[in-house]
Amino acid sequence: MDPGQPGEPQQEDHDVDVKIRDRGTGFGPRLAVSDRREYLDGLDWPRFSLTPLGVTIGAEVGGVDLGAELDDAAVSELRRALLAHKVLVFRDQTIGAAQQLAFARRFGELEVHPFLPGSRDEPEIVPLAKDPAVGGYENIWHSDVTWRERPALGSVLRAVEVPERGGDTLWADMAMAYAGLHDETRARIDDLVAVHDFTLSFGQALRGEKLDEARATYPPVEHPVVRTHPETGERLLYVNAIFTSHVVGLADDESEALLGRLFAQAEIPEYQIRLRWEPGTVAFWDNRATQHYASSDYWPQHRRMERATIIGERPE
């Protein structure tokens, strides 16, 4: 079976429409999840071991040394595994920044982030260092750099130093987030477009001419509210609370109300995994198909991660 094919749930298999008054999404079995679980259980991986971490998202990969030179067949199979599971976790990797970059480059061109300073020697590596003076502010569900015309394909994140407890990262499966919406909501949003803007987050640290220059270089962009994955064909909910400004063509209050409902889809535990980091853990995720959340529960302890981001294509 080809893991690039998503195994879409049948139309009648979307979530049961059971509500308490009108308090958000329905409850009861997440029926779309069972279709995806069955599909993933039918896949095999001859070049490495793969242990699922969640029901529809996430898998731990065994038997792969990211510091070794991987042949094209191994890279191709890892890419297929990424498309199927959306988040791949590699434990006990004794690699440095150069080897991390070499691995990430096997999947595409790398980004130099305009607002997060890169390493002096390796500008494509973004150090994410937290300590008593710098808290973690990534604890909001998001996909990286959706304010770019070509947002990230994915990221490779390496744990260098982690707190004794806390500092986990969570990911949400945005294909399941879309599939779990009620029929009328999917019909309403399928052709909508939203504006993504860096000023909602990174712009808060800029003033005057620097903000004007950044706005000129990175103007707001429009992306579909529901994008189609370019490699799997999956339909994906593609709005996030940190970078999505508004829905084009809707009044402000209507846009905010709709976005609030859609943002909440990432918060459903049935669509999530939670990763406990250890030094040497590496996570590789598909930024097109997921959102993530870095739990900020460890301050004032130290947490140092290093990230390489792969440039993607314009969403359609």
Written description of the protein model:
The chain has 7 helices and 15 strands. The protein is of the alpha+beta class. It has a single domain, classed as Clavaminate synthase-like (Double-stranded beta-helix), CATH 3.60.130.10. A 7-stranded mixed beta sheet has the order 1-2-3-13-5-15-4, covered by helices on one side. Strands 12-6-14 form a 3-stranded antiparallel beta sheet. The chain is globular, with a radius of gyration of 19 Å. About 2% of the residues have low confidence.
Topology overview:
Layout: H1 31-41, E1 49-52, E2 59-62, H2 72-85, E3 87-90, H3 97-105, E4 126-130, E5 152-161, E6 169-173, H4 174-179, H5 183-189, E7 193-196, H6 208-217, E8 221-224, E9 226-228, E10 235-237, E11 244-247, H7 252-263, E12 272-275, E13 282-286, E14 290-294, E15 303-311
Parallel strand pairs: 2-3
Antiparallel strand pairs: 1-2, 3-13, 4-15, 5-13, 5-15, 6-12, 6-14, 7-8, 7-11, 9-10
* Beta fraction: 15-25%
The main sheet comes to: 7 strands, mixed
Overall pLDDT metric: 91
CATH topology: Double-stranded beta-helix
Q: How large, in whole angstroms, is the Cα Rg?
A: 19 Å
N-end to C-end Cα span: 26 Å
How many discrete domains? 1
Give the count of helical stretches.
7
The CATH architecture category equals: 4-Layer Sandwich
Structural class, please?
A: alpha+beta
Helix content: 10-25%
Task: Give the ordered list of helices and strands.
Answer: HEEHEHEEEHHEHEEEEHEEEE
Q: How is the largest sheet built, in terms of strand order?
A: 1-2-3-13-5-15-4
CATH class: Alpha Beta
Overall form: globular
* Strand elements, count: 15
By CATH's scheme, which homologous superfamily applies?
Clavaminate synthase-like
